[in-house]
Amino acid sequence: MAAREEAALEARYREAAAAGDPGAASLLGAMLLRRGDLADAEPHLRRACGAGLRAAANNLAVLLHRRGHREEAAHWWREAAVAGSAPAAHALGLHLRDHGDESGAEYWLHFAAEHGHTLGAYALADLLEHRRDVRAERWFRIAAEAGHREGSYRLARMREAAGDRETAETWYRTAAARSHSRAALRLGVLLEERGEREEAARWYRQAAQNGEPRAACALGFLLRDSGDPEAAAEWWREAAEGGDGNAANALGALHANRGETALAEHWYRAALDAGDHNGAFNLGLLCAAAGRERQAEQWYRRAAYAGHREACNALAVLLLQHGDPSGAAPWFSKAAEAGSVDAAFNLGILYAGRGEQHEAQEWYARAAAEGHGEAALQLAVAKERRGDLGAAVHRYRQAAQGGSAEGAFRLGSLLDRQGDADDEAEHWYAVAAEAGHGRAQVRMGVRAAARGATDAAEGWYRRAAEGGSRSAAFNLGLLLAREGAEAEATLWYTRAADAGHGRAALRLALIAARRGELTQARNWCLRAAEYGPAEVAERAGRLLEALNTELSA
């Protein structure tokens, strides 16, 4: 039915056009143009143009443009635009823009936009944004309000860049609802940052299904973090096959963690092929973990020369380990200047090893300013050695807050010695002790024992002793002996003495002497005298004299 009606309509247009009706010629030419019959359409459109019909001029320009006659097309678009055609003004504006006439392009695109042409408004906004003209936002908004989805997306990006996330989200939603994949991706990112992970996943999935690899990658990370690594891997694989290097790296890491090095290497190489230099860095890590240091160095170099800051730092560490500090220094510097906190700290160590303390302190300070706890610790130790205890406390506190267990212990110890912040001192001892710091655990045990909290003291001593602290082993022995558990106490004294603890050896000598095991007592006395300290050696000497007398008798 539609085909018969169209054929009848065409016949009427042809008859009228043959009778000299320019309007019919214009309509016939437009019908033939839509059908793709350019050769038949052109004479009818030219006849209508001769009568001054602007719609025919615009359509003729479209026809000529399709045939590659761009300059003549521009002539007819100008004719139609001057006659008031907004579509022609839009087309002419694009033509002028593409030929470098931005002022002419702006004039005609503005004309089209002012006459309600949505594509004209968008193209004008695009041109103005390219020139960093603040008027761009107004025209993106007009295009967006007229339903232009790319205009909605671009407006959202502008509002997000300006810090107006609420408005940005509104326009991302508008564009995403019209299946704009990048808008759905950005909407997902905003929602995930806000903690609305379920809705974020929905928009990531929509964008991924519309062919956006970055959304598939983001969805993979969301699924991994929710405890579903298998589903994550599926989306990462889809993203990686779509050219997303980040997803390929994620797949590589997944397989590396499973010990599947061949698959890990495959995906790291895929990441590198996609232009992601994290792939080279990760290949370096993979080779280093397998003991293939020469290959690791090659991959680190490749990533480092591409500007990968962590690869610069890793390469420098490797060179330093191989005894090449002069080769390491520039790579540490490059990484540090690019923002690597670890590299700044490593530079501090490098300069300190050379005796260049001023330079070392500068790099430590840079790393500490970025929250590097061990760098702050180095600064604190230097301050304490100089007697600047106020500055030392500040730096120790910074180190402790940056995760340094040694910093927390030293802060507690310094506050303890100052004697005016006992509660805070114990707090920092506890922080260090919970992080596995042996001396802090012993200190917590001593404090608990002094309060009569025997169970707590025993718990801290055990943790420290099991971690290898001989002082903790000795203190645990004393505590158990006071509680009547002498057999277990002896075991801990023995562990402490075997680790060189003089008091523990003396205690074992006394126990052996009391049991009448004089030879064993003599042996422990000799070890106690060897281990010290001085007062222990003196007591061990007196006991040894008594034992020798007894043994002689």
Automatic annotation (TrEMBL):
Specify the superkingdom: Bacteria
InterPro entries on file: Sel1-like, Sel1_AlgK, TPR-like_helical_dom_sf, TPR_rpt
User: Sorted alphabetically, which SMART domains does this protein's record hold?
Assistant: SEL1, TPR
User: Pfam families from the entry?
Assistant: Sel1 (PF08238), TPR_10 (PF13374), TPR_16 (PF13432)
PANTHER family, sorted = ERAD-ASSOCIATED E3 UBIQUITIN-PROTEIN LIGASE COMPONENT HRD3, SEL-1-LIKE PROTEIN
Entry protein name:
Sel1 repeat family protein
Q: What is the lineage of its organism?
A: Bacteria, Bacillati, Actinomycetota, Actinomycetes, Kitasatosporales
